[in-house]
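Here is the promised in-class demo. Please do not try to memorize the tokens; focus on the logic of going from shape to residues.
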């Protein structure tokens, strides 16, 4: 049993293990359980509220069945492509997602593409579906981030803030890294926590906002804008970012999504006002 410690809170500590239990001698990890729990909660809430968006529950289930594997594949491909040196062409290592290595942007892209194809075939309003799914997607993200906590990953640079955390595993990870400018003996930012709290805030805002918006697609655009803003700043604190040259890939994507969807949001609002006059 390892402990995550918070030295600036009187050395408060939380016992943490990545293994929940064993089945036939194989470890079942908290990482997978927590991500699955977030996903199931999001699906159940979505099913309960699908009629609000004129969606049949059968269609929602079909989209989940299509979108889930597409999202997992997209999330893994994104991570592997931009972190190829970690895998060295080892196929078994590439497909082993039990210990982490899923990139949320890749998952989002994969799920959206699969959903678009389904909507085209079934003649379902794609933007309406995105509006329906956006709040639940970010809720699943908020819950799933706690899987990073049990894995003791997705942390940031050193901090003197009260909630700065450390552990033997975090220290060991930092000692293996070179050129990141982080002291292994000092607490680090719990960036998984920052993103989880931000995503919960986005979820509650979107649930409020969906009672007020009138233009199709606007709820999803707002999700992409708000998530992108949070991810841009949080990513800047992390030490495990994927890079293209000197640039953090997730920061580039976050900034791009904020700009693109903000422009789309404004243009559609202006068009709507023109049509009303």
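The designed amino acids, position by position:
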């Amino acid at each position: 049993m390892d402990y995550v410690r918070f030295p600036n809170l009187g050395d408060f500590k939380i016992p943490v293990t990545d293994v929940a239990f064993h089945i036939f001698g194989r470890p079942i990890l908290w990482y997978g359980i927590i991500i699955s729990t977030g996903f199931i909660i999001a699906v159940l809430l979505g099913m309960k509220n699908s009629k609000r968006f004129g969606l049949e529950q059968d269609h929602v289930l079909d989209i989940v069945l299509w979108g889930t594997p597409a999202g997992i594949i997209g999330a893994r491909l994104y991570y592997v492509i931009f972190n190829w040196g970690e895998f060295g062409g080892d196929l078994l290592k590439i497909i082993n997602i039990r210990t982490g290595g899923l990139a949320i942007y890749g998952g989002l892209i994969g799920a959206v593409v699969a959903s678009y194809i389904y909507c085209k075939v079934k003649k379902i309003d794609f933007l309406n579906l995105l509006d329906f799914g956006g709040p639940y997607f970010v809720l699943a993200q908020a819950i799933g981030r706690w899987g990073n906590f049990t894995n003791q990953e997705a942390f940031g640079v050193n901090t003197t803030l009260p909630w700065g955390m450390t552990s033997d595993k975090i220290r060991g990870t930092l000692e293996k890294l070179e050129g990141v400018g982080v002291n292994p003996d000092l607490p680090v930012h719990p960036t998984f926590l920052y993103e989880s709290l931000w995503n919960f805030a986005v979820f509650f805002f979107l649930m409020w906002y969906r009672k007020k918006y009138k233009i199709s697609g606007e709820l999803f655009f707002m999700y992409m804008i708000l998530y992108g803003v949070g991810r841009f700043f949080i990513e800047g604190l992390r030490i495990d970012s994927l890079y293209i040259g000197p640039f953090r890939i997730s920061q580039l994507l976050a900034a791009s999504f904020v700009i693109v969807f903000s422009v789309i949001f404004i243009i559609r609002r202006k068009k709507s006002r023109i049509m009303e006059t």
